[in-house]
């Protein structure tokens, strides 16, 4: 991958899209397994359905948003859906060792993303539900 040292602008964005697709697919597979009602369900069901991530913009700073009802902004998100050149993100709030999956989502242009930092998977009760707050 090539990039310009002064601006962090990547010339090859396929790695970002590929990573978003992998995160989205893994989360959707976890949701589908949870909905499956078979005898093997308890043995095969995944215990996590969300991969929290931080998205770094081309200026090297993390993408952050205000969270309604929360005192601080957040930089943590869950990939909900990839829509053409954008990714729909559910807003997550880290509260000590636990996570809060909010009802709010935001759209981010994939072209604005230069790096993705993933964190250990969590369970999000609101996964798969779309409540567009922004």
In short:
The chain is of the alpha+beta class.
Largest sheet: 3 strands, antiparallel
End-to-end separation: 33 Å
Q: Helicity level, as a percent range?
A: 10-25%
Q: pLDDT average, as an integer?
A: 80
Q: Strand content of the residues, in percent?
A: 25-35%
The string of secondary-structure elements, in order, is HHEEEEE
Tell me the number of structural domains. 1
Describe this entry's structure for a reader.
With about 130 residues, the chain is of the alpha+beta class. It has one domain (about 15-120). Helices cover about 20% and strands about 30% of the residues. It contains 2 helices and 5 strands. It has helices at about 15-35, 40-45; strands at about 55, 75-85, 85-95, 100-110, 115-120. The strands form 2 sheets. A 3-stranded antiparallel β-sheet has the order 2-3-4. It has a two-stranded antiparallel ribbon with strand order 1-5. A hairpin with a 2-residue loop joins strand 3 and strand 4 (about 100-110). The longest helix has 22 residues, at about 15-35. The protein starts with 13 loop residues before the first helix and ends in a 16-residue tail after the last strand. Residues about 1-10, about 35-45 and about 130-134 have low confidence and may be disordered.
Task: Provide the descriptors you would attach to this structure in a database record.
134 residues, alpha+beta, three-stranded antiparallel beta sheet, two-stranded antiparallel ribbon, 5 strands, 19% helix
